[in-house]
C-alpha cells in the first residue's frame, strides 16, 4: 500500500519536472532522486525548491532533486508508479518551451537585499557555468565510474553497520551464538563485491551486464589459487574492485568486437563464449596481478600518508574536498574508498573528507547570525542546517555559501581544520575509518571503525567535527563578509526593500 506522505511528495514533484512525458529515466542514490529529462526547460526550479520535502536541486548529467537519506528511497517508487500511470504518447507544451534561460539575477545594491531565491538562482547559474566549462572527457569518465559504484552504496552501508554491531557484540562478549551469523551477513557482500562491480561496469559501458559479472567473478573464485600465472601464484580476490572494473571494461570491448564480425545466426553462442574466454584469460594472466599491485599501493600509500604526514594531509584533504565536489573530481575517490574497505575493512580517508561538511555547517551558522535582518536567507539556513549536520550539504552549498563567495572559502577553512585534527590523531596512532561510503556528518557515527577501541574512534571523529564547526563558524563570522557585503545583505532598509509589505524592525541604538 502506498504511503500517503511519500505519494504526495512524488505527486508534487512530477508536474514541476514537466510531467511524465518529460521523464526518460528514474533512479536514486543515497540522498537524491536522479531524473533523465527530455526538455530541461520544462522544469520549474523555484517551485521545486519551495516544496517542504525538497532540500535542493543539482543539475549534472541528470537532474537531481535532494530529498535526503531514507526519504528518497521511499519517494522514488511512488514517483516511478506515477510516471507509469500518467505517461501518454503526446506531451503538451509547457513553460519555457522556447528554451530561454531564467532572468538574470540583478546585482545587489544597498536598496535590495538578496533573497534565498536569488541566492539559489546564483548558485544554479554557477553550477551550470561550471558544468559547461568542465565537461571534459576525463570528468565525464569519472561520472561513469561513479555510476558504477553509487548503486552499491546502500549495501555497503547496511553491511558496514552490521559489521560494526557485530564487532561491538564481540568486544562485549554478548550473544556469542549470534555473532558468527552477523559476521557472515556483513561479509557476504564484500566477498562478492567484485561481481557487482563487473555487472554495473558492463551495464554502464554498453555491454551485457551478466558477461561483465561473469568475468569479474573469476577474481573472487577460490580456484584461482591453483593457477600459476608466469611464476606468480594468484590469490582469490587479488586485484579486487579495480581488477573487476578493468576486466569488465575489457569484456565490453571484446563483446562489441565480436558483434562486428560474428554472424547473427551464431551470435548467441559465439559472442558470449569468446567474451568470457578471452577476457577471462587476460584477467587471470595479467589484470589480476597488475590490479593487485595497484590496490596494494593504494593501501600502503594511504597508511604512509596518514602515519607520516597526517595533520598536513588532513588539512589539504579536508580543505580541498568542497572544491573537488564543485569540479566533480571527488568521484575519482570512490574506487579508492572501496579498495580500502575491501583491503582493511574501512576507509581512513572518508572521516577526514567528512570534515568539509562540518566546516560548511559552522559557516552556515555564522551566516545566520551575521545576516540577522535577512529573513529569507535565514529561513533557507534553518531548513537546510539539520540536513547539513547529517551530512547532506548540497542545500547549504548551492543555496548559501557558494553564491555568497567568501563564506564558501571560510567553510573550506573549517573543513581543513577538522581534517588536520583527525589526521593528527592518525599520526599519533589512532586511525579513524568508515566501513562504508556515502554518509558523513553525524550519519557516519554508526559506521565508524578504527585500529583502537570504538570509544577512542568516536571521540576523535567527534572532536574533528567540533573543530570543523568552530573554525568554520569563526572564519565566516570574522572574515566571511566585507563591509560592502553586509551593507547589501543585512540592513533593515534593504530587508524592507526586499519585502515592502513587511513592517520595518526598530534599529537598536
Automatic annotation (TrEMBL):
GO terms for MF: kinase activity; protein-N(PI)-phosphohistidine-sugar phosphotransferase activity; protein-phosphocysteine-N-acetylmuramate phosphotransferase system transporter activity
PTS EIIC type-1 domain boundaries: 143-495
Domain (PTS EIIB type-1) ranges: 7-89
Renumbered residue ranges of the record's region Disordered: 86-108
Taxonomy, superkingdom: Bacteria
Annotated membrane topology: Multi-pass membrane protein
GO biological process: phosphoenolpyruvate-dependent sugar phosphotransferase system
InterPro entries: Glu_permease_IIB (IPR036878), PTrfase_EIIB_Cys (IPR018113), PTS_EIIC (IPR003352), PTS_EIIC_1 (IPR013013), PTS_IIB_1 (IPR001996), PTS_Sugar-Specific_Components (IPR050558)
Record-linked PROSITE patterns: PTS_EIIB_TYPE_1, PTS_EIIB_TYPE_1_CYS, PTS_EIIC_TYPE_1
Transmembrane segments: 148-175, 181-199, 211-231, 266-291, 311-334, 346-371, 408-428, 458-479
Keywords carried by this UniProt record: Cell membrane, Kinase, Membrane, Phosphotransferase system, Sugar transport, Transferase, Transmembrane, Transmembrane helix, Transport
GO cellular component: plasma membrane
UniProt cross-references to CDD domains, sorted A to Z: PTS_IIB_glc (cd00212)
Gene3D superfamilies given in the database record: Glucose permease domain IIB (3.30.1360.60)
Compartments, as annotated in UniProt: Cell membrane
PANTHER family given in the database record: PHOSPHOTRANSFERASE SYSTEM TRANSPORT PROTEIN, PTS SYSTEM N-ACETYLMURAMIC ACID-SPECIFIC EIIBC COMPONENT
Protein name listed in UniProt: PTS system sucrose-specific IIC component
Protein species of origin: Streptomyces candidus
